[in-house]
Amino acid sequence: MKLILQHVQGQIMEVNGRHALLLTNPTPEAPTDTSLYLCFAVVVQGPEDHILPAVVKDDWGIEKRGLDVYAWLEEEGHRFPRTEVFGFDPDGTETQCFVRALELYVRLPCYAYTSKQSPVADGRLLTAVYLPDETVTTPQKIERPSRLPAPLANAAVSWWLIPPATESFDFL
User: Fold this and answer.
1) Counting beta carbons within 10 angstroms of the beta carbon of residue 128, is it exposed (0 to 12), middle (13 to 18) or buried (19 or more)?
2) 49 burial class (0-12, 13-18, 19+ CB within 10 angstroms)?
3) What's the rounded Cα separation, in Å, for the pair 7 and 26?
């Protein structure tokens, strides 16, 4: 099984023991040396455990893969509670869960990887995304931007506009 990943370009930063993404391109056409891969966890009701999905198998056994899984879960998940999500715990252990056990309408915890082949346990849970913006002179916390592609637009992170030359990132 392989994680469902969204390709972006940027840099993973560690600030005060938490991880943030300095996002330079949300929709790159080809891999580069700044390529990163994001995986969006689904959340189990109650314990709020994270499952990093690889495949969703609906009530008829039809497998769904790829980023469209997230839109399908949000739009159709409540109609198909016996659908199963197969994936991994953040530590890399294989797991599965029925859709009826998931919080279908929460923001998605986002894990960042430096390579498509990175082990699942190497993912860094992001708490913020920094967007370089020429129009700001100081970091500004903002609402979730609507121009970003899903599922990144639904990530459970704080969003910041920052001046492109910012070097200090202590404002998580």
Assistant:
1) buried
2) middle
3) 8
Classify the phi-psi angles of 8: left when phi > 0, otherwise alpha if psi is within -120 to 50, otherwise beta. Answer: beta
pLDDT on residue 167: 77
- Which single residue is written with the structure tokens 């969003």? 159
Span 66-86, pLDDT tens digits: 999 999 999 999 999 999 999
Q: Which residue has the tokens 């967007």?
A: 131
Task: Give per-residue pLDDT as tens, 104-124.
Answer: 999 999 999 999 999 999 999
Please give the model's pTM, rounded to 2 decimal places.
0.95
